Amino acid sequence: MFTPDPIPRPSGPPASSTPLGDYLSRAHHGVDSGYVTLPRSLAEAMPLPWQQQMRHLLAEFHQAFGHLQWPVYRVVPSRYERLVDLDDDQLAEVGCTVEVDDSGELEYRMRDGRRIEDPETHQVLVSCLDPIPRQQPGGHQPAPRPAPPAW
User: Fold this and answer.
1) CA triplet 109, 113, 114: central angle to 5 degrees?
2) Which of 77, 83, 84, 142 is placed for a possible disulfide with 130 were both Cys, Cβ 3.0 to 4.6 Å?
């Protein structure tokens, strides 16, 4: 009735005790060291079963952590740009100034007066237009479907 063969063990590394942290530690859109951001228009355009699962997960999340004092978060679409490629408004946005020094060279400084040594390679985050399409009020925008494979 019982087999004398050993129980097969799954091959591969053992399951992680921090699967979400492991996943989020890799480079992904909308993820940085402190936050995970989901564009609402894309979340609302997901297939219905996905939306139902997401709604359930978020409801459990808010039930578990709703007692905390949450600030209001402001999410601004941004992209990395070289400091030397910014205009005056963008420089002001990131807290930098540019002046001509005694030798006639441009000198970039942070808001606190510190000089930026290599502005050609120094990158900063500046706001940009949101490339994610927004869902029209009252309308449903279907999620883009990948093209079928060419056989």
Assistant:
1) 65
2) 77
Q: Which pair of tokens denotes residue 149? A: 């494979």
Cα separation, 106 vs 2, in Å, equals 81
The answer to pTM > 0.70 is no
Beta bridge partners of 36: 31
Q: Give exposure, 27-66, as e/b (b: 16+ Cβ within 10 Å).
A: eeeeeeeeeeeebeebeebeeeeeeeeeeeeeeeeeeeee
Q: Which residues contact 141 (CB under 8 A, 6 or more apart)?
A: 41, 45, 133, 135
Domain boundaries, the chain: 35-64, 78-127
Count Cα atoms within 13 angstroms, Cβ side, for 16. Answer: 6
Return the residue matching tokens 């679409």. 77
Interval 8-31: pLDDT, tens: 877 877 788 899 999 999 988 889
Contact 80, 123 (CB under 8 A): yes
CB 85 within 8 A of CB 123: no
Structure tokens at 128: 């940009």
